[in-house]
Amino acid sequence: MKAETTEATSTGTPSADESTQLEPQSRESLSGSSSAHSDVESRTTVQLRCIPPHLVRRTLILALDKTGFAGQYSFVYVPIDFTHNVNLGYAMISLETSKAATGVLERFNGIDWPEEEAEQPGGGAASSVATRESKERAASGACEASWSEPRQTLEEHIERYRNSPVMHPCMPDEHKPALFKGGARVQFPPPTKTLRRPRIRHVKEN
């Protein structure tokens, strides 16, 4: 599963950025070990993969709150396939501190998502696609948590999405990335250029 979403295209295909696990620290170099330790301390964004197709931002936030991370996240985003009304299989969470980010990584890596953590969209084509994806993701195993790459800081996420088509006024709020401070939702900084309307491919009715 690729790490970043595209600029809200109809296909919902992520871009080429990959999310990777941290490389093991070298046992041969003290300086290399110190560098790796410093790198971990600077990381605050976690990516969750193999999530249920119907998981949305709101239910992810509820899961974070219930597992002891209320008020510790600053950015939450669950990219959506707008054509089929399901997520793209991953989510990104930026935490206030690297300690909290490490906690999320350790807490969510390997978990099996309960059904109540996912919301069911309306019927029709979206449901059939979601059902198929649910089976495929279930077969792929439990949730995978890793450090998000290449963007880690809150400022990088803001610059990445403030001018993205996903922020266009026509898009549902639930589909957009959200910012938080002290547990409260805060407004996303305004775009610095005109937002393009997302290109959405509509499913043909039989």
How does this structure look, described?
- The structure is a single chain.
- 28% of the residues lie in helices and 15% in strands.
- It is α+β, with helices and mostly antiparallel strands.
- The protein has a domain at 45-185: Alpha-Beta Plaits (2-Layer Sandwich), CATH 3.30.70.
- The strands form two sheets. Strands 6-1-5-2-7-8 form a six-stranded antiparallel sheet, covered by helices on one side.
- A hairpin with a 2-residue loop joins strand 7 and strand 8 (184-186).
- The longest helix is centred in the middle third of the chain and has 16 residues, at 125-140.
- The protein is globular and about 40 Å long.
Features of the shown structure:
single chain, 206 residues, alpha+beta, Alpha-Beta Plaits, six-stranded antiparallel β-sheet, two-stranded antiparallel sheet, 8 strands, disordered N terminus
Question: What layout of secondary structure does this protein have?
Answer:
Elements: H1 30-41, E1 45-49, H2 57-66, E2 73-77, E3 80-81, E4 86-87, E5 90-95, H3 98-108, H4 125-140, E6 144-147, H5 154-161, E7 178-181, E8 184-186
- For the termini, the CA-CA separation is 30 Å
Number of strands: 8
Tell me the CATH topology of one domain. Alpha-Beta Plaits
Question: Which CATH-level-2 architecture of one domain?
Answer: 2-Layer Sandwich
The CATH superfamily of one domain appears as RRM (RNA recognition motif) domain
Helix/strand order: HEHEEEEHHEHEE
Residues in helix, %: 25-40%
Number of DSSP helices? 5
Structural class: alpha+beta
Shape annotation: globular
Largest sheet data: 6 strands, antiparallel
Low-confidence runs of at least 5 consecutive residues: 1-37, 120-127
Which class of one domain in CATH terms? Alpha Beta
Overall mean confidence score, pLDDT: 76
